Sequence to fold (68 residues):
Amino acid sequence: MNELLDFCKLHYAVIEALQTEAVPEHYVIAYGSEESLHDVIAEPCIMASGFSSREEALANTDACVSAA
Fold:
């Protein structure tokens, strides 16, 4: 039963969408495990991960961008 609860717990990441002519856009996405995140999103596009809520990730988006 604990495995099911662990699977259902979501984390949030800030990712960067690279565009050729525009300023890169940043998005917050939910994921179930670090492995699943890296299976879907290329490593260079992941600005930060491990946030426990969408709000926490949004609040840290500016810090992620300026650190990059």
